[in-house]
Each structure stands twice: as structure tokens, then as C-alpha cells.
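Work Package 3 (structural annotation) set out to generate three-dimensional models for the target panel prioritized at the project kickoff. During this period the team completed the workflow that converts sequence records into C-alpha cells, so that structures can be stored uniformly alongside our sequence database. As a representative example, we reproduce one entry of 289 residues exactly as it appears in the project archive.
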Amino acid sequence: MRIATRGSKLALTQAQWVADRLGGAELVTASSDGEPGDKSRFVRGVERLLLAGEAELGVHSAKDLPGTMPEGLEIAAVPTREDPADAWIGAGGSLEDVPEGARVGTASLRRRAQLLAARPDLRISELHGNVDTRLRKLEEGELDAIVLAAAGLRRLGREEEIGFAIPVDRMVPAAGQGALALQVRDEDEAAGEAAAAIGDLKAMRELTAERTVVALLDATCASPLGAHARVLGDRIEIDAFVGLPDGGEWLRDRLEGSAEEPALAGAELVQRLLGAGARELLDRAEEMA
């Protein structure tokens, strides 16, 4: 089997993790050269390889996948999920302990909105690049702290960098954070069965609920939106956050539903969010961004 992946260190580590659990596979690196747009351009490179028949399985960080995907492709499975929390690297042992006016790096409007909602005194700086690049800027003293996904640091063997994990009830993670999505052509039964063999039903249900929230709110990877689901026995609990990038206004809600109907639970939460004004907030957030 051939696995399509991005070429970053984290992406290759994740793809190799999947290959090992499949009993071995060839990694095929996708290119994003010449692709316009945001980080979804990396997703499109992997999807092109799948649609062209140059790979049978695509491995994605689930949080990077847009709410809709090209015709002919589907998520066949989600392996056991890593910690979905955001991680703080730098000064302080909790959000309350962080020094006043600290310079914090992140490229995420979701993180920016929730950090400023909790600590309006923080100075948020735009920070792009891979994990190594971001950590280097912190080491060089350009920033006092940065916020990254705990899962990525753990997969890279760099969890010792984590100062503290921000509790998900303080910062709602991005939909799919900590999860890997295994994508296949929908007519490729063999690839689908191979992916399903290393899949985790609990993680798939959580991702389904979270992606439903993103899709029904017509959000993008740049929207200041968090969605996090937890399967607890036969129930599923979903948290969502929608806010403005400056942290000045925001909405949070939590809903519990049947774990066997994660999409329905996600849809019900969206209806409540829309009733509370989420659409207007997201539209205003887009204008501000």
C-alpha cells in the first residue's frame, strides 16, 4: 500500500506511525508548490495523489481537513486519538500565572480569541512555520510563549517542551485536533478495509460530531471556532466556542447526545449556537481577520 502524506517532519512521523500499524507501506510525499490559499493547500496535495491513483491511503491531521472534501474521497477511519488539548510552551504554569503583557505567538484565530478572552493583557503575535521553526523563535527570545497542539509535540517526541496543557474547558480545541484522518477513494474497498482495521470507533464518532459543527457553521480552518467532543460510554458530549479574534465577544455552549448519532448531536449544538448569534459573530470575525 502507498500512503500519501505531506513532507513535514510531523506529517512524515504520523504517516510512518500509520504505516507501521498496517504492517508496512510506502510513503509518497505530496507537494503543495504553486497551491494558493491557506493550510488546506497541503490537504489538496495529498488528495490529488489519491484521486490520481498514485496512493491508496492519505494520512491527514484531522484538524486540517476542510468541512467538505472532493467527490470520490472519504474518511475511512480514525485511529486512537492523541491528547486534543492545546499546549503552552514558555513562561508560567497556568493561564493565570503567565506574566502580565506576555508576548505569545500563534497563527490561530481560535487560539487568539480564547487567549484574549481569558487574558486581555496578552500581546499576541502572528507566528507561522513548522514546529521546529516556532520553537526556535521562542528560544531566540522573540516571544515569551507559544501555543501548539500537544498531540504534535508528543508525536515528535518533544513533549518535554510543554509548560502546561491548557484544559479543554479553558480553551476549546480545533475540530479534529489530536486525531488522524485516514482518507481513501470511496470505491477502493481494500484500502478502506485496511484503514478500518486500525481505526477506533470512539475517535471516529468524536471527529464526526466535531466536523458536523464546522460544516454546518460553514467555517474554515481560519475561523475562530473550537469544537471538541468526548464519547463517554453511550453518550457524547460536545463543547463549542465561537468568538471574535480580539476576544471581545464570544459564545460557548455544551450539549450531550447519543454516541451512536454523533452527527445529530453536532447538528443540535449548531442550532443552539445559531440561535445565540454564532453566524453574526463568525461573519464579523471574518471581516476583522
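The domain at 86-166 is CATH 3.40.190.10 (D-Maltodextrin-Binding Protein; domain 2).
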